[in-house]
Every structure is written in C-alpha cells, then in structure tokens.
Fold these 4 entries.
Entry 1:
Amino acid sequence: MNKTGLISIYKKRSALIELNKVASLWESYQNDDTEKLIQTARELESVYPFILPAAHAHVERKPTDENAGRPIQSLITIIKELKTEEFKPVFREFNKRDSIYGFGDLQVKRLFDEIIKNN
C-alpha cells in the first residue's frame, strides 16, 4: 500500500475479535490442514475479508501433481507473455499480479532462476 492507503486503513482500524478462530488459522497453517484453514477463513470473512483470499493464495502456492504452484505458474506465464528472460520486467509484473504473496525480489529471483535453469 502507499502512504495514503496506509493512513486510510489506520483510521478505520478496529480491535481484534474472534481471537480463538484467528489463532486456529495459525494452527491450521502449521499443521498443513488446508481444509480447516479455508473453513475458518470463511467463518471469519465477514469480520476479516482479507483472510480468505490469503488462505486461498496459500493453498494455491503449493505444488500439486498437476502444476508447480501459483507463484511458479505465474512466473512461467509472465516470462512467456513478455517474451523475456530478463528478471526486472518479470519481477515487476509478478508484483502486479501476485502481490498477495508479498514476495521480495530475492524470493522471486530464486523461483525465476529455477525456471530459467530448467527451461
């Protein structure tokens, strides 16, 4: 967020409620219980609308038999669309599309290098 956005959400801040459910999110994350994570996020959605998209992004981040996980798939798509193996433009586009992950340049660079090496 930019400075204006941060100021805006700070002014609209509220006290945490549903602390037991919020704490159970961390337990679900630690135990890799994605079903419970999503279920709890849905239960908290009316109070914390940002949790469900974050929970979905976490689940999509993980590789499966069908794909390498959303961050890697997104990088592969961006590399193909931009027709480049130059990191800077790929990183900028990744941050636009998948900012929910909050990945820094070194995290994305590690994934990017892995993709380029395996091509």
Note: Helices lie at 3-11, 19-30, 34-44, 51-61, 70-82, 87-97, 105-118.
Entry 2:
Amino acid sequence: MDHSYRTLQHDGNTGRPGYEAMPVVDNSTSKPIFAFVDDLFFMAKIQETARKLNVKVAFVKSDKEVLESVAAGEEKPSLIIIDLNHHTVKPLTIIPKLKAKFKKDTNIIGFLSHLQGELKMKAHEVGCDMVLPRSAFSQNLPQLLRRHGAPEETENQTVQ
C-alpha cells in the first residue's frame, strides 16, 4: 500500500500536521551578540528570536564576562543589548566601559520604558548608539539580530 500521501499531511517525527524540524545550522560563524537582560519575558523573546534566525546570543551578568570572552579569543561582539532598567548591573556605568573597549566595532542598543525620557538622554550621553522603547525593541528585534548576528558570507550574498 502506498503511504506517500502521509508525507504531505504529517511530519514523520511529530505526527502533527504542518510541523517540520528546522535544519541545524552551524552558528559558530555568526558574530557574537551579548545581552544584559534580567527580565525573563525579554530573555525568552530574545532567545526564541535568535534561535529562529540561527544567531548566537549570550546573556551576561557583568562587563567582565564580555571582556573575558573576547580575551579568550572570541571575536569582538557586533552588538550589545542592554536593558536600561537592569536590576543587578548599572547600565550607565557599563556602557562607557564597553564603548571605550570596543569603539565603533560594536553597537550598543539599550531599551527602556517609553516614559523614561531622561534615562534615554543619559544613555545616549554615555555612549549608547541607539535607545528604543520596549515596544519598538520587541518589534525590531528580528531585524536587529539579523543585521548584527548574521555570518559575513550571508550578508554579502544578500547584498549582491
């Protein structure tokens, strides 16, 4: 009996219609992205978006972790994401340290509540390249991760 019709209706792994396993892609060629985020909602959102785009995002708790990973031979990060309302680190003191270390090679993007205009200005003053309200950050997250985390070969191919 021919059961080829089942391949059109069901994935053999899950038995559920419409579900296909995502291909495993080596993301060791992607540029490193670090995130200072302690909000579980945003951590999950960033992790899920990064997983879908095959981009590696490392969640860190201090600027020392970032500097140690670069000193250990990892490439300079292309992006550092900072929750400007982080509870355990002081973003306004970390941003100038990271900006001084990585210069223009690394973009630093902060996000905050849309009501925090004064904090937004301070973040720009200390070196944050872009400050977004939480809603805009969530909305633009896939584009940000794709732009900063995609491997060089992929970027060159899509530009041509």
Note: The longest strand covers residues 107-112.
Entry 3:
Amino acid sequence: MTPASLLSIGELSRRTGMSVSAIRFYETRGLVKAIRTTGNQRRFMRSDIRRLSFALIAQRLGLTLAEIETELATLPQGRAPTRQDWQAISGRIRGALQARIEMLHKTRDLLDSCIGCGCLSLDRCALYNPNDRAARAGAGPRFLLGDRAQDFDDAGPQQVRGSTAPGSGGRPPPPRGPTRRRQSRHSRRGGQG
C-alpha cells in the first residue's frame, strides 16, 4: 500500500463529514484502524470512508453502537466492501429497522393523545389513563409499547359507553383506547371545532 493511497485523519474527516474526534472515538472502538507513519501520524485506508459512512448512517437509523460494531466486524479490513458485503448487512439489520419503523409510526399516531406514560399531567390523560391505570402493566409508555387502554378498563369489555362503572362515582368510563377523535358534523362540513 503506497502512502499516496492513504488518507490523513483530516482528509477522512472531510470525506465522511465526521469530526476528527468522532473518528478517533471509532478508532478506539476498533471500527477503523489507523496505520502509523514513520513520523507517528495516523493514516487511514480509503475503505475506511465506507466503514465510517456506514457507521454514520446506521446511527441515524437508530442502530446502537454495539450493533454497528457487530456489523462492521463482518466487513473486511483493508478493502472496500463489496455489494455482497452490504447485502449481507442489509439482510441482518432489516428486521431491526422494520421494528423501528413500526415504532416510529406508532409514536407518530399516538403523539396527539396519550402514550400511557403515567405523567397524568395532560387534561386528556384523565380520559385515556385515569388514575394511571396503564401502570399496572409496568413502567414506560405502555400504549406506545403495545398495550391498549381497554386492557386496563375496570368496567370490562361488556361496559356500554355512557353508562357508569362500579366505584366510578357516577362518571362514564373513559374512551376505549387512544383513538382519534370523531369529527362533529360541523367540522366534517369544513367548519371549526
């Protein structure tokens, strides 16, 4: 390998868009390996551009550092990854990415309502999660994690909307789950409200 084919850490930073400190961090983790010159300067192979670019993209996709390290460990050191190398990585991370996509969709759909976090600070939580019923299933955003408000209804599935549950003080039961609000006839016709 000729010195002309190697990149300084500054050149690698410019080519990947990563800071020098980030490249040094990845080097300490073994994701890239510098070659030392006779003057003890770091030099990197051109193939490290792709390794670091993958790490950058994988982070933005939500992969953990451990997942990135695992995948980069499968790539050859010293040569650019081939199409087959990338396809193998793609096949391995596809399921994890799909799960993240589904979680993002669910988060987007629930952000306007209650995620079952137990905060009880929003006016609407009194409707969706009164008395923090979702906490019965455990910590965290229960509705976002897949639990449903109706799983925690004290009244049970037979309770008819509009009637009162025993011990509720005459209040009607909460709506079943974080569903979208029904539009009134007025708002369906294009009016406000």
Note: Strands lie at 7-8, 35-36, 42-44.
Entry 4:
Amino acid sequence: MPSTTYAVLIADVMGSRGRKDLRGMLGKKLAAVSRRHLRRKLIQLPYSVTAGDEFQTVTRDLPSVPAIIQDLRIALRPLSLRIGVGFGTVSGRIQAPVNRLGGEAFLSARQAIENIKTGNLYKFKVLTAFVSRHEHFDRAINLIYGLHDTLVLRISARQWETIAEFRDKPTLGQTARSLHLDESTVSRNLKRGYYWQLSETVKIAGSLIRHTFC
C-alpha cells in the first residue's frame, strides 16, 4: 500500500518580542480556529503552540492548504505570520500532541520556514514557503506565494478588518452594515486590500496541489 502524503504547517508570529501576553492571545485565537477547522475536517489535529511563538498542525486535505493559510492570516490578526508547509509522510499514528510526531512532512515544513527566515528563496521578502519532493511544484507554488505575499505585506489594518468581515458576511451590504460603512467604502477596501487576488491564489494554488499530489 502506498504511503499517505500529509501536509504539515509550521507557523510563527513575527515581531513577537514586542507583544505583551502573546501566549494568551495566540492560544485564544488558535482555539477558535482549531474548532472551526476541525469541524470542517480541514486539519487532523488542533493547532498546538510548540515553542513560544510557534504553532503546528497536520492535514491530509492537501488541496485545502491554501484556504487554511488564508484563514489563519485573517483569523490571527493583528498577529503577522510566517508559514512553512511541508509535504510528505508522517511517522507513526496521527495523534496529539503534534510536537511528538515526526517524519518527512515535518522535516520539510521545518526547512520551508527556515527558508523564509534566512531569505533563501528570493531577493524579496516572503511570508509563506513550501517544500516537497517535487522540484517543479516547489518552484511554481513558491513563486505564486512570493508574489502573493508581496501584496499581503501591503494590506492595511482597516483593509484586513473589511476582508475578515466580508469573509463572514459575503455581501457588500451585510459587511457595510456590520462595519458602519457605506458599500462603496467596503468595495474600495476589498480592492485596495487585494481581496480578489488573494481569493484567486487560494483557488489556483489548491488546484496545483490537487494535480500534483491527489
């Protein structure tokens, strides 16, 4: 029987040293995201803080990884994240705590986040990186996310607020009423916050993962 391919996500909080009660804020936000992602069967295990400002999870739903990344970036605001994703096998039974698991996917995820920290991928700043056995896949998806992250780094706090509200109330009218704005302002915030480009990245990257691994 062929081995199962998993995706492991390792994320850490940028600029964490300057934040008071980071552990409490991170734990509360991750608990809420874990409940939502487990209910939707996007992840195998709850997000677990494994070291200070770092957390991990593992999933078999590989095409959903881009949606998971986007949801984490929205749900954990105002915290900014670096996210490394590794594809491969996992040693042993999938069970909590996640930091006791190991295998190819974990090693690849660790390499991915180290590539972000050391700036090994490009001459421009990135927030997301992928490592797998497939060189051409890695080159393609890392370039997609390198360009994607260039936009993410330019999104303002108000634009993130509009994106988060629009995600939960996906009409201009509902979002406008919730934020006490007019619809034209909501539309402008979504456009200037690159919401539509971010949404297309999720679709295209998910399709690329599906065609490579599924």
Note: The longest helix spans residues 195-213.
